[in-house]
Amino acid sequence: MQLTQDAQFLAQLKGIVQDQSASPRTIGFLDEYRREAAREYLRGHRVEDFLFDGGYPQADRVLLTVYPPKRRSRKEVQGMTVRFRQEDELSHRDILGAVLSLGVTRESVGDILIEPGRAVVFTFPHVAALILSELHKVGRVGVKVMDGFEEPLPVKDHFEDRVCTVSSLRLDCLVGACTGLSREKSAQLVRQSLVRCNAVPVQRGDYSVAQGSVLSIRGYGKFLFAREMGETKKGRLKVLFQKYL
Question: E strand or H helix at 137, and its extent?
């Protein structure tokens, strides 16, 4: 499944590079892995005029636009605000599910930032128009959708701290600490390309992970290796992970 998706993505990239039209060409929204893969592909094909834009500077999911020479123009990403009662406690998954239920594809939705009473959704202008006219409820909760957003934006990332002990900073050891799986099962996830380090798939269990790296583990979530915290009396390493919520 993943190989098919990667092949489709590369075919899309090839198509926009070969397209000689006078209009901007877009792909998106891309996650961190595909963003870096696209950057390397475009540089390798000497494409210089392109832009990654998620609607705000720290966006994870971004739209790639490749421009014809000297024709950079319109803004492709639009933000909108979804208001609701603070006591309703809607989640990222709730908002995303409601948007997708309108017939919108996941690739057409960028970041969703959420806080009590407010969510900010980034998407294409034509999708924004659909959401503005059609989204009135998220589950059973009534919402009000407005064009644009106010600063400051909701906090992008929320974390849950986890202190673990590991025998080393090998990738398979850290995956085991994050997931609670055995060393062998963790190594199997790595071999199956189900683990990414800083958005890049790594298939070596003995890969040494640096402090500050972000591990994305299929089916288990995303974890920031925040820092080392010394050794235990038995000589194991104490490490702090922050799981993205």
Answer: strand 137-138
